[in-house]
Amino acid sequence: MYEEYESKMKKAVDFLQSSYSTVRAGRANPAVIEPIKVDYYGTPTPINQIAAVSTPDPRTLMISPWDASSLKPIEKAILASDLGITPANDGRVLRLLFPQPTEERRKELVKQVYKQAEESKVAVRNVRREAIEKYKAQKKTGEITEDDLTITEKDLQKLTDKYTDEIDLVAKKKEDEIKEI
């Protein structure tokens, strides 16, 4: 009965998890370069489609282009992005060295994590509000009774609580990951 709304709430949690993968926590993670597009023969192309991306050690991301001529455009795209890391170019591969985050940077990352978590909770609550409005309209037209509406509102609140708790868990896990670096 509530599958549509539960699916939307689940998407909010999934989106939060995918956005956390791009939070630069001091560990080399290929997901941090996913949003970066390279001008490859006039077409904006993701780096992972024109190069092999690997992590030889926890603090290094290595980008090995399949076409040597794309090395400079990849380097330019990384420099132009808001990544904040200057790639080391040895003529064949690019290396991104992730520095150990300072205490101040960790606190900033934790704030960012909880801000994103709050945005996801708002999205979940908006789904609940949308659903309740739909059921209230059905009550007005006589499709459901007052008791049905009350039960539905309680069920939707339980769903909302379930997903906001899940968001809290995901945020706490990311916070712990940031603090252990």
Short description:
This protein has four helices and six strands. It has 181 residues and is of the alpha+beta class. It is elongated, with a radius of gyration of 22 Å.
The overall strand count is: 6
The portion of residues assigned to helices is 55-70%
How do the strands of the widest beta sheet line up side by side?
3-4-6-5
Quickly give the structural class: alpha+beta
How much of the sequence lies in strands comes to 5-15%
**Number of helices, where a helix is a run of at least 4 consecutive DSSP H or I residues:** 4
Descriptive keywords:
single chain, about 180 residues, alpha+beta, four-stranded antiparallel beta sheet, two-stranded antiparallel ribbon, 4 helices, elongated
Folded structure, characterized:
- By secondary structure, the chain is of the alpha+beta class.
- Helices cover 55% and strands 15% of the residues.
- The protein contains four helices and six strands.
- Strands 3-4-6-5 form a four-stranded antiparallel sheet, covered by helices on one side.
- Helix 1 packs antiparallel against helix 3 and helix 3 packs antiparallel against helix 4.
- It is elongated and about 70 Å long.
Task: Describe the secondary-structure layout.
Layout: H1 3-20, E1 37-40, E2 43-46, E3 51-57, E4 60-65, H2 71-80, E5 88-89, E6 94-97, H3 103-140, H4 146-179
Helix pairs in contact: 1-3, 1-4, 3-4
